[in-house]
Amino acid sequence: ADATYDYDVLVIGAGPGGYVAAIRAAQLGLKTACAESRETLGGTCLNVGCIPSKAMLHASEYFDAAANGAMAKMGIKVTPELDLETMHGQRRDAVKQLTGGIEFLFKKNKVTWLKGRAAFEDAHTVDVAGQRVTAKNIVIATGSSVTALPGVTIDQKVVVDSTGALELPKVPEHLVVIGGGVIGLELGSVWRRLGAKVTVVEYVDQVLPGFDGEVRKEANKIFKKQDLEFKLSTKVTGVQVAGDKATITVEPAAGGAAETIEADCVLVSIGRRPNTEGLALDKIGIEVNNRGQIEIDHDFRTKADGVWAIGDVVPGPMLAHKAEDEGIAVAENIAGQHGIVNHDVIPSVVYTWPEIAGVGLTEEQAKANGEIKVGKFPMAGNSRAKTNHEDGGFVKVIADAKSDRVLGVWCIASVAGTMIAQAAQAMEFGATSEDIAYTCHAHPTHSEAIKEAAMAVTGKPIHV
Ligand code: FAD
User: Kind of pairing, strands 125-128 and 118-122?
Assistant: First the structure.
């Protein structure tokens, strides 16, 4: 350790980016501290994001399977009764165990947790709750917060953000979700399954902006079958709350006659913005870009010498696994190694039922870049999905027409989030569609659909 400083590495923020960076730095022999202003470690992801949302999705999926007759079809007749408090309890338990797990890992790896908000004094000094701490390297991993809708106040009762939507004390009669992105669809699904009427209002003409076009269309069809209602190409112009009811005013995105929707709960899920307020970035000469993000180079260095940044606060998809991988890479770079994240191969998953996942280019992006071949395989042709009575969904493999190198893979399937890992790995290794087609896949598994979609690239799947 360099005696000039209190620490070799100080990480600001203990989300999946920050806590992973801190642990890796300590594993590499660097004296490391991590400042976190929350009461618990784990950031957005463990406290109010990935983990609690998955706890509610998992539990509500069971409830729905019992309620909608899916279990009865398999000879299990039950009439479910909702005990929402217990469902919330198991969510809180999952969060507690996992955030406690990070605390344990900090202790095990000798990472010091500095409790409190950090603000820069200079590029090697921060103030953490009144305490002056110096470090040779400082990693900004402050994450992101919910984007507000101008003029709409989040009261966490009638008008909630994702954090409030995880904790509703009762099932709403009518939940209006503003924003048809991943978070809105996941949380909308939770409350729909538990009995709420759910209407999703989306500004653009299809849900899941950024996903492959065909996947978006198919997803929309599936969600409609699950009785989620959609108002696409529609903008919200106001939300009026009176007592425990809200009136949402909407109008066509292109302009036109306004209408109102009555609801007892409104979820604002229009996106997230990077957390840089209060960091005193001006003291170290860093300005944010027009999206509020901190710009970095290939090695995660900011403009300020000795200051690095990773995760939701820098450009790229706002995803926990992207933040984690950047956390490992930045620590390795600080230690003089060569940490790299391949930003072309970062999977995205929507944990609805079925799950929706993709990695690499969409068909639209790939087409715009050059000649491509596309292989598609329906989940209806997959024996395991069929056996499990799962209908709907497909896998699509997009390959370069000349080299056959896989450019993107998209799946809608019950376990698409798990399936997409093999596609990411294949792409990381520079696989061709033929490589996947000639890899032996265990039978009967959902993953065979990826193999068959790869076979379909050359027009020769078997089971369709
Ligand atoms: P964060 O997790 O936001 O952590 C930053 C931490 O820094 C926070 O704990 C904050 O308190 C702390 N902090 C900020 N400023 C300071 C300061 N000045 N001093 C000290 N501490 C500070 N991603 C997925 O990949 N999969 C999912 O399934 C998924 N589901 C999600 C569901 C929801 C409802 C939400 C809201 C998000 C979800 N995400 C998901 C996104 C994921 O949570 C984020 O991409 C991820 O948490 C980003 O990690 P991070 O380390 O950059 O920042």
Answer: antiparallel
- From residue 266, how far is each of 56, 144, 220, 248, 358 by CA, in Å? 18, 21, 20, 8, 29
Q: Are 409 and 391 in contact (CB under 8 A)?
A: no
Residue 148 DSSP code: P
Which pLDDT value is given to residue 2? 72
From the list 88, 124, 441, 443, the catalytic residue is 443
Using CB distances shorter than 6 Å, the residues near ligand 1 are 12-18, 35-38, 43-45, 49-50, 53, 117-118, 141-144, 162, 183, 275, 278-279, 311-312, 318-321, 323, 351
**Nearest atom in ligand 1 to 318's CA:** 45
pTM: 0.97
What is residue 391's predicted lDDT score, i.e. its pLDDT?
Answer: 79
What pLDDT is stored for residue 54 in this prediction? 98
Which residues are 294's β-sheet partners? 288
Q: Is 446 annotated as a binding residue?
A: no
Could you tell me the two tokens for 19? 């806590």
Mean pLDDT of each 10-residue bin along the chain, 464 residues long:
90 98 98 98 98 98 96 96 98 98 98 98 98 98 96 96 98 98 98 98 95 97 96 97 97 96 98 97 98 98 98 98 98 98 98 98 97 98 96 95 98 98 98 98 98 96 94
The answer on whether 271 is annotated among ligand-binding residues is: yes
Residue 163 CA to ligand 1 center (angstroms) comes to 12
419 is in an annotated binding site: no
Tell me if residue 443 is catalytic.
yes
d(CA 274, CA 56): 25
Q: Beta strand pairing status for 32-36 and 112-115?
A: parallel
Q: Give the separation between CA 218 and CA 117, rounded to whole angstroms.
A: 44
CB under 8 Å to 137, separation ≥6 — which residues? 8, 9, 10, 306, 307, 308, 334
CA distance 422 to 427: 9
